[in-house]
Amino acid sequence: MKVPQAQPVMTEKMIEAAATALRTERLTLGDSVFKFEEAFAKMCGVDHAIALGSGTAALQLGLQAAGVKSGDKVLTSAMSFVATSNSFVAFGAKPVFCDVDAVDFNIDPAKIQLDKETKAIIPVHLYGHPAKMDEINEIAQKHDAVVVEDACQAHGARYKGRRAGSLGLMGCFSFYPTKNMHVGGDGGMITTNDPKIAEITKKLRHCGRKGQYEHDIIGYTARLNTANAAVGIEQLKLLDQWNDKRREIAKKYDQMLKGVGDLRLPLQPSNDFEPVYHQYSLLTKRRNELKAHLESKGIGVGVHYEIPIHLQPIYREMYGFKEGMLPITERLCKEVLTMPMFVDIEDEQIKYVVENIKGFYG
Predict the structure, then answer these.
(1) What is the rounded CA–CA span in Å between residue 77 and residue 310?
(2) Element (H, E) at 188
(3) Helices within the chain (DSSP H only)
(4) What architecture does CATH give domain 12-234?
(5) Looking at domain 239-361, what is its CATH homologous superfamily?
(6) What is the pLDDT of residues 251-296, one digit of tens each?
(7) Where in the chain is the domain with CATH 3.90.1150.10?
(8) Residue 221: what pLDDT?
(9) What is the DSSP secondary structure assignment for residue 31, as one 8-state letter?
(10) Among 74, 147, 333, 362, which residue is least crowded by beta carbons within 10 Å?
(11) Residue 98: CB atoms within 10 Å
């Protein structure tokens, strides 16, 4: 039996939606883009959503719309995909990495240290589990820093009843194919209640355009294609159903893996935290051995992330970051292993994964 680590959904209805958009709409900024924005904003419980070409673009343009500029510091987590910080390093802002909580793998508010040069905090809702947003927002407010959620793995997640994307000045999402929902390619979204942020990001995505031939800011080409938006509309209709399925899958893993070997299972949902299990993550001191064993059995697993951002070669070169700066992050990156997690996984596949994990531990 083979079990992939992820398996994106693309139905005939989604393909037909894209084809219809290609036949009947403008290829960029067509009607489907604006319908997708409206529906996504409604899902998140915010006033505005701005569709973009990627999650990286969402973070970059969102930060720039909030006034973050070259030379400013941005605090975030190094236990994330490198795009989290690439988004602002690209325009000259400086990364400040905060260690994570060993329980939820998100920024530990107790370890946040800001100075007058720190203009933004980017909490990452890692694996779809929301960060401790009340504490983070309180710290940011005291230091006049903006909070930009990296919700690229947290579509539909809730914190104290509110959706990810509505918990800071803005939220930034990715629609990469392995996310909880996708758009048939790359895509991203900014969500916000701030009309000024919405106005500026709409300009930034469209070459800084004020009118058809007039440009009053330096912008980018960062639009979401219309056909991709059409797929996103159909995917969004299924998001809550899919997230429920992911939580059901996580419960099955929890029940079958409890007490196995040295495994530490993911943090459980609670009244305040409703995760969406973009990844189902295990911790083990024998990560590399277990990974090799499962792969030899045809089971796809992931390491999210083997190298924390501050220890990526380019960040070492640019900023002189070294081992030991973020001890919890560095330990977790040596122990984390993510299991197959996708909405169409079958019970027999889950059992096969679990049986082979148990077989590894004997």
Answers:
(1) 9
(2) strand 188-192
(3) 12-24, 31-44, 55-65, 83-89, 133-142, 195-205, 226-257, 287-296, 313-319, 327-335, 347-361
(4) 3-Layer(aba) Sandwich (3.40)
(5) Aspartate Aminotransferase, domain 1 (3.90.1150.10)
(6) 999 999 999 999 999 999 999 999 999 999 999 999 999 999 999 9
(7) 239-361
(8) 97
(9) H
(10) 362
(11) 24
For residue 215, list its beta bridge partners: 209
Q: What is the mean pLDDT of the chain?
A: 98
Distance CA 181, CA 55 (A): 13
The DSSP secondary-structure symbol of 92 reads: T
Before 305, cis peptide (omega within 30)?
yes
What pLDDT shows up at residue 326?
98
Residue 287 to residue 2: CA distance in whole angstroms: 20
Contact assessment for residue 153 and residue 279, using Cβ atoms and an 8 Å cutoff: yes
Give me the phi and psi of 150, to 5 degrees please: -90, 90
- 3-state secondary structure at position 310: helix
Single-letter amino acid, residue 149: E
Q: Please tell me the predicted confidence (pLDDT) of residue 2.
A: 97
CB 269 within 8 A of CB 247: yes
Task: Give the pLDDT confidence score for residue 279 in this predicted structure.
Answer: 98
Domain ranges in the chain with CATH number 3.40.640.10: 12-234
**Of the candidates 169, 136, 164, 168, the residue with the CA atom closest to the CA atom of residue 152:** 164
Please give the average per-residue pLDDT across 110-139, as a whole number.
98
Burial state string for 288-322 with b = 16 or more CB within 10 A and e = fewer than 16? eebbebbeebebbbbbbbeebbbbbeebeeeeebe
Grade residue 192 by pLDDT with cuts at 50, 70 and 90.
very high
Rounded distance between C-alpha atoms, residue 203 and residue 215, angstroms: 9
Look at residue 302 and give its three-state secondary structure.
strand
Report how far Cα 324 is from the mean position of its chain's Cα atoms.
Answer: 26
Torsion, Cα of 317, 322, 327, 331 (10° steps):
70
Q: In whole angstroms, what is the distance from residue 58 CA to residue 70 CA?
A: 17
pTM over 0.90: yes
Report the residue count for the chain. 362
Residue 178 near residue 9, CB atoms below 8 Å: no
Residues forming beta bridges with residue 19, ordered by sequence position: none
At residue 126, the 3 state secondary structure works out as: helix
